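Order emerges. One example.
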Amino acid sequence: MKIEKIKEALDASILEGEDLLEASVDQVYASDLMSDVLAFGKPHSILLTGLATRQAVISAHMAEFNGVVLLRGKKPKDGAEKFARENSLVLLSTELDMYDACIRIDSIKRKRHSPAKTETVKPVREEILLSHEFSIEGNDFADAGMVSTEVKSLLKKIGLDPVLIRRVAISTYEGEMNVVMHARRGKVYLSVSPKIIEVVIDDEGKGIPDVELAMQKGFTTATEEMRAMGFGSGMGLPNIKKNSDELKVESEVGKGTRLEMRFFI
């Protein structure tokens, strides 16, 4: 299903990506919970959401979505348009609510042709060696997601498998958001060797009293403000565990938390 058809069905206006409307999407995902988008969204989809924040657009990018439709006439804020433009995402806006938008899209999905084949980039395994360090500031929602965006960009330049890159990007993004929401500051260490990608996120914060409990789906200590931005559904650490091949979590109350994620190439 082409994005152009979705735009027409929703009578949506184009905010960014007019030259990308001919792109096809395999699925439409409707949600205001960004952790759910990262956990259950499929690549080459389009997101319907009432959240007009940059974090919503970043989440779509991390999940390898092709675009975002802002519902109820919402207008993008805090740099959402700029991020969409820089990362080749279509950004649309419609006056419809989520229910009506889904009904309209369902009417055209039945006529959808088989999705176009996507090219797979073969992983480049020879002479891969990359080491990079990033900083994250707690409570800095304006720049939240920039580290994971840079990590994703670096891995793409190497030429790794897109599915692997998506897993690393989602895991890094979830870890980055945990630092922004719950810690004073943090460091992200990325290292790539011929057989493994390692991402370590080390933060200075309040720590996790019960790591086993925090790993359970649905457990959250997020504030109402964080929930309003689409986070805090209790899917952060479970998402990281799901997408990484190995995960080690160490935490000390009052000091901070260290996540060690490994992904096999």
Residues 171 and 240 are 5 Å apart (CA to CA). Residues 113-128 have pLDDT under 50 and may be disordered. Residues 3-109 form a domain with the Udp-n-acetylmuramoylalanyl-d-glutamate--2,6- Diaminopimelate Ligase; Chain: A, domain 1 fold (CATH 3.40.1390.20). The longest strand covers residues 183-192.
